[in-house]
Design brief:
Elements lengths: L29 H33 L6 H15 L3 H15 L8 H26 L3 H9 L4 H16 L1 H14 L11 H12 L2 H30 L14
Helix pairs in contact: 1-4, 1-7, 1-8, 2-4, 3-4, 4-6, 4-7, 5-6, 7-9, 8-9
Length: 251
């Protein structure tokens, strides 16, 4: 079977070769459409990642607070709830169920609801990593902060969390890459990201091999870029000679 990469230079209306692959002259080509879909994928992923990091850090930290059993239980409930419901089910809940229960959500674009669903789902996973990172620290670090007269907030802010974040950079890298892949479920609620583009373009052009190879390449580029950025962060944040010993920092 011969490949035909010129399909990306065809306009999306009449399937005729456009003046330019980038849609000059008013034409919208399949390449334009694919790059636009890539932009939606990146937007959904980055916004969901930002939400997941904020919530995950807060929830993960709360789960390690000493002498706060109710707060710990609430944090555990958050993780169990959002981690154990499949992401696609959460997408449908946010898009179809919650707006009917809470009318204020009915005016929110589907794009935003997908960001919430993906961000909350990933926040549970990041919260678990933050909790593990804090509890992996030696108990002496907590005691050192207390001995200096720090409040609970202060020794978390200046002692425990900076060290815990260094420990969890590798699993955070995996989660950051996963969030780009998980964004593909947004097609289920008609967000025009890469997977929806691939499905529709394949139907229109009958060039599924070329379309899916191009889309796969964009997913790889996105994940690889995140991997390299996180690798640089990990290298710069590394503390020479630091070795984690005894998982008791969170207790």
């Amino acid at each position: 079977m011969a490949w035909d990469w010129q399909v990306f230079c065809e306009d999306t209306i009449e399937r005729q070769p456009a003046q330019s692959c980038f849609g000059k002259g008013g034409d919208i080509t399949y390449l334009d459409w694919m790059l636009s879909a890539w932009g939606w994928t990146v937007s959904v992923s980055l916004l969901a990642l930002l939400l997941a990091l904020v919530l995950g850090i807060v929830i993960g930290t709360l789960r390690t607070l000493p002498d706060r059993p109710m707060v710990v239980r609430l944090g555990n409930a958050w993780v169990e709830l959002f981690r154990n419901i499949p992401l696609l089910v959460q997408i449908f809940l946010w898009y179809h169920v919650l707006p009917s229960m809470f009318p204020v959500l009915q005016g929110i674009p589907g794009f935003v609801l997908v960001v919430f669903a993906l961000g909350f789902f990933t926040s549970a996973r990041i919260a678990e990593q933050v909790r593990s990172g804090i509890q992996a620290l030696p108990r002496g670090q907590r005691y050192a902060g207390m001995a200096m007269g720090f409040t609970t907030f202060q020794y978390y802010r200046y002692v425990l969390l900076p060290m815990a974040f260094r420990i969890i950079i590798p699993p955070l890298t995996s989660e950051t890459m996963n969030i780009f892949k998980n964004s593909s479920v947004a097609f289920a609620v008609s967000v025009s990201e890469l997977t929806m583009f691939a499905m529709q373009a394949q139907e229109e052009t009958s060039r599924g091999v070329e379309v899916y190879l191009a889309v796969t390449g964009l997913y790889i580029i996105s994940a690889f870029a995140i991997n390299r950025i996180m690798a640089v962060i990990e290298k710069r944040a590394r503390i020479p000679g630091f070795v984690v010993a005894g998982g008791t920092g969170g207790h």
